[in-house]
């Protein structure tokens, strides 16, 4: 997303400032949630749920970003949020011990952010979260600090994975 900012500035300064505001909020939200989830294995609603509303400017920026109405961009933002929410909800239903509902709610927010750039970003942000979480779990097992049953907060991996992918250029 950072790579896209200069072109957005020249195309539509209003969309630029909307995206900058959303990125600033993302950094604040992510830093708070990482600390809270590591300490308590919880992703509090008082932070996650308002994040849906603070991602609304991304949808507006996607709609007006290129100077005209970009309906596919808007669909991508909203679709990214819906698709990730549904994927994580299914994972929660299939294996409730492995995924908390806070992760499901956070997935929708991250889908909005990643969907702003592309469907590939939605995929890679999700893949990065599972890869990072899996490597961390494997490291715990190899260092004999945990087992396959050890509870690991997944929110930090979701946020770091999405944050890393947001730094990639849009397709």
UniProtKB/TrEMBL annotation:
<comment type="similarity">
    <text>Belongs to the peptidase A24 family.</text>
</comment>
<protein>
    <submittedName>
        <fullName>A24 family peptidase</fullName>
        <ecNumber>3.4.23.-</ecNumber>
    </submittedName>
</protein>
<dbReference type="Pfam" id="PF01478">
    <property type="entry name" value="Peptidase_A24"/>
</dbReference>
<keyword id="KW-0472">Membrane</keyword>
<dbReference type="InterPro" id="IPR000045">
    <property type="entry name" value="Prepilin_IV_endopep_pep"/>
</dbReference>
<keyword id="KW-0812">Transmembrane</keyword>
<keyword id="KW-1133">Transmembrane helix</keyword>
<dbReference type="InterPro" id="IPR014032">
    <property type="entry name" value="Peptidase_A24A_bac"/>
</dbReference>
<feature type="transmembrane region" description="Helical">
    <location>
        <begin position="14"/>
        <end position="35"/>
    </location>
</feature>
<feature type="transmembrane region" description="Helical">
    <location>
        <begin position="73"/>
        <end position="91"/>
    </location>
</feature>
<feature type="transmembrane region" description="Helical">
    <location>
        <begin position="150"/>
        <end position="170"/>
    </location>
</feature>
<feature type="domain" description="Prepilin type IV endopeptidase peptidase">
    <location>
        <begin position="25"/>
        <end position="138"/>
    </location>
</feature>
<dbReference type="InterPro" id="IPR050882">
    <property type="entry name" value="Prepilin_peptidase/N-MTase"/>
</dbReference>
<keyword id="KW-0378">Hydrolase</keyword>
<feature type="transmembrane region" description="Helical">
    <location>
        <begin position="47"/>
        <end position="67"/>
    </location>
</feature>
<dbReference type="GO" id="GO:0016787">
    <property type="term" value="F:hydrolase activity"/>
</dbReference>
<feature type="transmembrane region" description="Helical">
    <location>
        <begin position="122"/>
        <end position="143"/>
    </location>
</feature>
């Amino acid at each position: 997303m950072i790579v896209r900012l200069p072109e957005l500035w020249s195309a539509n300064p209003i969309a630029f400032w909307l995206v900058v505001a959303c990125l600033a909020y993302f950094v604040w939200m992510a830093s708070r949630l990482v600390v809270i989830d590591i300490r308590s294995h919880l992703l509090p609603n008082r932070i996650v749920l308002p994040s849906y509303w603070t991602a609304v400017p991304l949808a507006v920026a996607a709609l007006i970003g290129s100077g005209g109405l970009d309906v596919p961009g808007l669909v991508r933002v909203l679709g990214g949020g819906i698709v990730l929410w549904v994927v994580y909800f299914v994972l929660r239903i299939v294996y409730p011990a492995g995924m908390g509902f806070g992760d499901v709610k956070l997935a929708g927010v991250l889908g909005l952010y990643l969907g702003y750039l592309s469907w590939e970003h939605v995929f890679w942000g999700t893949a990065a979260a599972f890869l990072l979480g899996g490597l961390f779990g494997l490291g715990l097992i190899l260092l004999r600090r945990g087992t396959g049953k050890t509870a690991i907060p997944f929110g930090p991996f979701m946020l770091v994975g999405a944050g890393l992918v947001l730094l990639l250029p849009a397709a």
